[in-house]
């Protein structure tokens, strides 16, 4: 099959760009660790959740949550910097066996929630305001939008469907692809080569992913600062971002 040639493409992240999923990943982590049996047992008003939330911007793939929970379990750690240092220490001492086993349980727990408590599961995920405006742009330029995320494909499709975001299934690159390449750089570069993309725009909230991808030629990046970002950088820049996205998709250059 000939690959479609796309002159301009937009690569979107999922968690922290389209949806606020921090309650969902906390619930899934707690259930995977046998701390809670059901989502209804989980206290989102707790200090534990609040601390989890503070570390959220340092998380890439799901196995990271294993160490986030370990750090927030230490009640003596109160300041954000103490929590961050503890989390980074734990990450440095990690063992493959430990986090692989957690990751497996994490996705099993999520699947079970999706199957058995579907409505409750969905209610823990909130779309950001930008979704409303993106819906129209994505529908009009469907071939040009790709989703590049560390989340599993099934839950991505579920949530996109519920919120009428028409990103073609062929354009969704999720957990499986990410695990294969261990970075978003390779996924994006492969797509650029495959579709002979001349100009592209990458929108993510995670600093780490943006910095890694900034080496790709003819790729502009914009940080979704309403997502999971360093507290002092957090702001709603969605109006700016939508303007730039509109300009980009209509053939102009991004001023970011």
Topology record:
Layout: E1 8-12, E2 19-20, H1 22-32, H2 47-55, H3 64-73, H4 80-92, H5 96-116, H6 118-123, E3 126-127, H7 130-140, E4 145-148, H8 153-162, E5 172-173, H9 175-181, H10 184-194, E6 199-204, H11 207-213, E7 219-223, H12 238-249
Parallel strand pairs: 1-4, 1-6, 4-5, 6-7
Antiparallel strand pairs: 2-3
Helix pairs in contact: 1-5, 2-3, 3-4, 7-12
Q: Would you give an account of this structure?
A:
- With 256 residues, the chain is an alpha/beta fold.
- It is built from twelve helices and seven strands.
- It has helices at 22-32, 47-55, 64-73, 80-92, 96-116, 118-123, 130-140, 153-162, 175-181, 184-194, 207-213, 238-249; strands at residues 8-12, 19-20, 126-127, 145-148, 172-173, 199-204, 219-223.
- The strands form two sheets. A five-stranded parallel sheet has the order 5-4-1-6-7, with helices on both faces.
- Strand 4, helix 8 (153-162) and strand 5 (172-173) form a beta-alpha-beta unit.
- Helix 1 (22-32) crosses helix 5, helix 2 crosses helix 3 and helix 3 (64-73) packs across helix 4.
- The protein is globular, with a radius of gyration of 18 Å.
- The two termini are 36 Å apart.
- The model has no long low-confidence stretch (mean pLDDT 94).
């Amino acid at each position: 099959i000939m690959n479609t040639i796309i002159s301009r493409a937009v690569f979107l992240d999922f968690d922290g760009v389209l949806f606020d999923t921090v309650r969902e990943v906390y619930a899934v982590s707690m259930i995977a660790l046998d701390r809670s049996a059901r989502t209804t047992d989980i206290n989102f008003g707790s200090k534990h959740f609040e601390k989890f939330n503070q570390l959220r911007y340092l998380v890439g793939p799901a196995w990271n949550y294993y160490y986030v929970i370990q750090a927030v379990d230490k009640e003596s750690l109160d300041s954000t910097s103490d929590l961050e240092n503890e989390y980074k220490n734990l990450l440095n001492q990690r063992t493959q066996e430990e986090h692989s086993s957690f990751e497996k349980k994490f996705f099993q727990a999520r699947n079970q929630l999706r199957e058995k408590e579907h409505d409750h599961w969905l209610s823990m995920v909130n779309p950001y305001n930008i979704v409303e405006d993106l819906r129209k742009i994505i529908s009009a330029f469907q071939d040009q939008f790709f989703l590049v995320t560390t989340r599993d494909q099934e839950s991505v499709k579920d949530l996109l469907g519920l919120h009428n975001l028409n990103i073609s299934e062929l354009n969704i690159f999720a957990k499986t692809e990410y695990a294969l390449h261990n970075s978003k750089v390779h996924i994006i570069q492969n797509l650029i080569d495959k579709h002979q993309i001349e100009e592209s725009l990458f929108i993510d909230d995670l600093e780490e992913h943006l910095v890694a991808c900034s080496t790709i030629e003819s790729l502009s990046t914009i940080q979704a600062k309403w997502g999971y970002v360093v507290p002092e950088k957090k702001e709603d820049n969605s109006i700016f971002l939508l303007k730039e996205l509109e300009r980009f998709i209509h053939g102009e250059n991004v001023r970011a």
